[in-house]
Amino acid sequence: MNRNLYRIDGVLLGTGFFSSLFALLFAFGIGHEIADAGPSTGLVVAFILVVGCPLAMLLAGWYVRRYEKTLVQMWQLVDRHNQVAIDHLCDVFSMSRRQVQRAVRRINRRGRALLVIDTEGDKVRNDGRKTEVMAHSQDCAKCGATVAVEVRSAASEYHCPYCGSGLDSEPINLLRSQMHYRETTNAPQKPQTLFEPAAPHSQSKFNLVVFIVLLIVFWPAAVVYAIWANAS
Question: At how many degrees (to 10) do helices 219-229 and 41-81 cross?
């Protein structure tokens, strides 16, 4: 699972942190100028621009980072349960249905996920076809505890809840093979979806060189460009 869905948050936070150091030095110098010669329009404007740059960068980076964490949490929730009702996602993440749909699209595009929206069941699924579940139990090879798990054909690795070690994959893979065979043989109809998994070549429009040039020329344009390039 790719947790780094956005890279612009790191760029904004890093740029905001380092520029804040220069802003503090500049503000200290401006303070002496104002104290000696009195306030002037030019000094006030320069103070606002220099101090506002790191503040805007940090706020924008924090916003993108927070949204990225929300997308990852939604992805983990659907991946863990294989299918989650859209209304439940709306309640958990305080989103509207349209926002949930947009989030699924971005997870697919940026995380290379396989989430689909089943319009008939009104759910978000980890895969449109792989919804079968089989019960399985085995003894943990490390601590000896008996562990019961639900094996899904689309799920990932399974671990012992007591010691955290991985379970024997051979019987689990056998169950998966049986489920895959039934899915292929029965060829179930794929549910209606609003969003298909993203194409492998879909990438962000963000260009670091353009961002740096705009940052040097006029930093508000750099912030706007960064948010625009990563909005999709």
Answer: 10
